[in-house]
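User: Fold this, then the next.

Assistant: Folding the first:
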Amino acid sequence: MRLFLHWLLNATALLAVAYLMPSSIRIASFGAAMIAALVLGLVNALLRPLLLLLTLPMTLLTLGLFIFIVNGLLFWLAGSLLQGFEVGGFWPAVFGAILYSIFSSILSWFLPTGKGRK
């Protein structure tokens, strides 16, 4: 149940990003946002660790700022893979990934932690 709620909140965060950046990021429907949130989660779980490892020297050289570029590329990749989720370019993808991360984190604070259950 918690996983489904997290997925739902990530889709809501994605809709909020599309609302704030309407000329750069477009989402056709809430269903498209749900699929995009799922694909973003899979891309971040499968490709991000490998990319972070491969770009570790560049990340160290830029004191961690290169991670924003990696996140933007993965956001852009998800936008190019899906129909109904469009990202207008590289820099909108970077800013969209930053906003998506912020909104997703804020919305995740509202999820119950599950502590105290027996």
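Now the next one, as you asked:
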Amino acid sequence: MFDEKSYSLKMDKAIEVFSKELASLRTGRANSAMLDLIKVDVYGQQMPINQVGSITTPDPRMINIQVWDINNVPLLDAAIKKSDLGLNPQVDGQLIRLPVPELNEERRTELKKNN
């Protein structure tokens, strides 16, 4: 039998997951949602970056992460480098700066391959 409610719930969940994946794409503009999928191994468990520090976007091409515990800075740095975003963090004490490169032809073709 066709159960409209269960299919509607499944479709809503699929749309929600798709929206999160779209928000996390690196498209040449700084967006704190890009970092949502990155997990950092701190305090013996995997935690999202927004639970280890505060994330701000001071301008369209920069993301700043103010890490709350200085001992977590190298862990965060390694997790960002290991991610598939292709960002190179710049560490300045407890502040990690992530310059977001401009969207070029190479990145466009890479995005097309993923879809």
